[in-house]
């Protein structure tokens, strides 16, 4: 069985091959090609396309392609179900889904940066998912400090910190207003927000800012809030310009049109192209007036 997807894999396009080889077809072959060649090459090579829009094996709502394969092949392995949440969080930039998601993203991004050959990247990446599977199978409940004499001291200190913060919960910190102004001022000109730089500008610890952010910004984490702002800008551009959807994806800071399409549909329920067509249909015909 051959499978085909777009080039330069990072998360889903390595996690899915691992899942397929381990639970679906251990002789499966994987092919990476440029995005605009996937469908034609799939027909030519009799391969199954995956992790691109408008094919069976892809994202559905907030689920990743990895999630769909688990459901499609009725994979019940508890360790795989643990991994599914981690992969979903890493692949969709929702690191609040699983605390391990941020680490998987960091390792995957670094691996892709170091290895330029997609097939070597896949070979190396499979080792990461073998390790993650072993952890999820045997070590999921174990903590690094489990046998450390400092563990209780750390938990006591953290508990005291949380109680202190809870007492101040009703008071809105000054940094919230400052951060809203920064986002408002820079969303049109600086789409690649740097959390570390923003933390330095606000004189806050990055971990504290990341943890407290959702309390004051629509109950969203930093990444989801910025994506919400970007989608709102994309809607404005669709409504007020004739820019192509590729250019709108670029202007709103998305890495590629596929990612833009997925996030846009998640927020609006429609693909950008469908949204634009419906918008055009809804406009009154002014010809002859």
TrEMBL record:
- Per its UniProt record, what InterPro entries does this chain match? ChrB_C (IPR018634), Homeodomain-like_sf (IPR009057), HTH_AraC (IPR018060), HTH_AraC-typ_CS (IPR018062), Tscrpt_reg_AraC-type_HTH (IPR020449)
Superkingdom:
Bacteria
What Gene3D superfamilies does the entry give?
Homeodomain-like
Q: Where is the HTH araC/xylS-type domain?
A: 177-278
Which keywords accompany this UniProt record? DNA-binding, Transcription, Transcription regulation
One Pfam family from the record: HTH_18
Q: State what protein this is by name.
A: Chromate resistance protein
The organism of origin for this protein? Pedobacter punctiformis
């Amino acid at each position: 069985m051959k499978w085909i997807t777009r080039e330069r894999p990072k998360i889903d396009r390595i996690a899915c091959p691992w899942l397929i080889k381990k639970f679906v077809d251990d002789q499966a072959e994987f092919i990476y090609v440029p995005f605009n060649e996937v469908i034609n090459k799939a027909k030519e090579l009799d391969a199954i396309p995956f992790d691109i829009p408008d094919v069976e094996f892809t994202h559905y709502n907030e689920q990743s392609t990895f999630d769909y394969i688990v459901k499609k092949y009725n994979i019940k392995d508890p360790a795989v179900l643990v991994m599914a949440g981690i992969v979903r969080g890493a692949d969709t930039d929702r690191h609040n889904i699983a605390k391990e998601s941020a680490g998987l993203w960091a390792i995957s991004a670094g691996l892709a940066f170091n290895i330029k050959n997609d097939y070597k990247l896949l070979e190396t990446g499979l080792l990461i998912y073998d390790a993650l599977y072993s952890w999820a199978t045997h070590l999921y409940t174990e903590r690094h400090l489990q046998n450390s004499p400092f563990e209780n001291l750390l938990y006591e200190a953290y508990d005291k910190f949380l109680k202190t913060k809870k007492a101040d919960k009703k008071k809105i910190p000054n940094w919230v207003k400052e951060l809203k102004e920064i986002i408002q001022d820079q969303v049109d000109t600086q789409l690649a927000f740097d959390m570390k730089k923003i933390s330095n500008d606000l004189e806050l610890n990055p971990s504290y800012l990341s943890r407290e952010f959702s309390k004051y910004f629509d109950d969203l984490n930093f990444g989801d809030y910025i994506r919400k702002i970007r989608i709102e800008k994309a809607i404005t551009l669709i409504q007020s310009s004739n820019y192509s959807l590729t250019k709108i994806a670029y202007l709103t800071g998305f890495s590629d049109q596929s990612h833009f399409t997925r996030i846009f549909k998640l927020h609006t329920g429609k693909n950008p192209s469908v949204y634009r067509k419906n918008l055009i249909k809804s406009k009154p015909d002014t010809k002859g007036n």
